[in-house]
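Subject: design request, 104 residues
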């Protein structure tokens, strides 16, 4: 769960999170930061179940943030504009790995 204080994590805390969670991502919006761990398959499954018909994309985004957020500055998501700005960056959290299929 996210820390609920205004004290930003120091290098030691970030190193601890990296050791525990792997890749981390920092989203900056209006000078405020949110630190998220990279979502795994279970996080994606949970997010997809939050929007089973694919009609409410914000439910998917909200689920990813709620489940992957490690830290959030107070006020980072206190307006609709900031929330939308953060949602617009979530695609960057998913690792890009190429795969191919070959008929044998």
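Subject: RE: design request

Done. Sequence follows.
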């Amino acid at each position: 769960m996210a820390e609920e204080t205004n004290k930003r994590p120091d290098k030691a805390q970030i190193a601890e999170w990296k050791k525990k969670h792997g890749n981390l991502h920092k989203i900056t919006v209006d000078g405020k930061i949110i630190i998220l761990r990279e979502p795994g398959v279970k996080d994606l499954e949970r997010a997809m179940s939050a929007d089973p018909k694919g009609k409410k994309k914000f439910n998917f985004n909200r689920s990813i943030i709620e489940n992957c957020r490690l830290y959030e500055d107070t006020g980072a998501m206190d307006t609709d504009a900031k929330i939308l700005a953060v949602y617009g960056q979530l695609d960057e959290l998913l690792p890009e790995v190429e795969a191919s299929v070959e008929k044998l």
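Helices lie at 11-21, 41-49, 57-68, 80-87.
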